[in-house]
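Figure-free illustration: sequence to structure, shown twice.
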Amino acid sequence: MNVLDRINWAVNTLRKGTGRDKENAEVLGYLYHLVGDVHQPLHTTTRYTAAQADGDAGGNGFPVKMPEEARIRNLHSFWDAAGGAFGFDSPKRPLDEAGKARIRALADEVMKAYPADANAASWKDVEPLHWVEESNTLGRQVVYKNIKEGDAPSKAYTNEAQRIARIRIALAGYRLAEVLNRMSAGN
């Protein structure tokens, strides 16, 4: 089952409901995760080469050089970390008040930079297939360009990755909210 199938399964399951609050909450959490994943280009793209005939597993097999403290070893992790747009340290789990405040501040920063009303046509697109296609296009046209295996991402590459990641994070949040709003309205 791929990410598109999983998103559709989660949405359809939530529309019908499972009859158990705990299970519905778990499916909702899974949907949050999947919508975020599908907006990261390497969750929809794999590079095939003569050396990697089976593909690089969405950048997991594409090594990059990063400072040791970043704990990033491959292109997939680099993009999962938004190219370092928010640093490379995640808040400790379970979240304490400081972790919650940090996440809220980062969300506010992204929403201020990319307000919902500035691009409503994009975020009102609640068709997950379109999200996959967008990410796949970014993967093919941007992610694997201007970077070589084993090298450190350049400043220009990092800046572009951070810009794209912020936009994709905003879109994921707005789209998830739209999906949930439509579900609660019975659409």
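We now fold a second protein in the same way, so the two outputs can be compared directly.
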Amino acid sequence: MRVLIADDHAIVRKGLREILREASEATTVGEASNGSEALDKIHREAWDVVVLDITMPGQNGLEVLKELKRLQPGLPVLMLSMHSGYHYVMGSLKAGASGYLNKETAPEELVTAIRTAIDGGIYVSRSLADGLNLDL
């Protein structure tokens, strides 16, 4: 499994990388600290899934998501953000995200969401889905 993590906080990227490495020895993790770097890595390498933060310097995650879906519509993208408002979640899903997780998500839920996205499904954190009354 090849996962690209795009988040402007190094400590978050490191934590996510460790969660994924603990979950599967067969995981290759790449990192990007902003939207431009994420798009560059997506152009240069093949990824199975992208985990993308919304709030980043330069291009925000929603802008990157829209560009990604234009360039590689079949590439699953999971949004991982501190923002949990309805417009963030639904805006991301409408723009083509394969799921949405808040940064308070349990580590096991991240792994489940990635596997769901790679398998072609949609995953929203249960706490978000329940709190926003989403029917998924």
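Summary for the second example: The domain at 2-128 is CATH 3.40.50.2300 (Rossmann fold).
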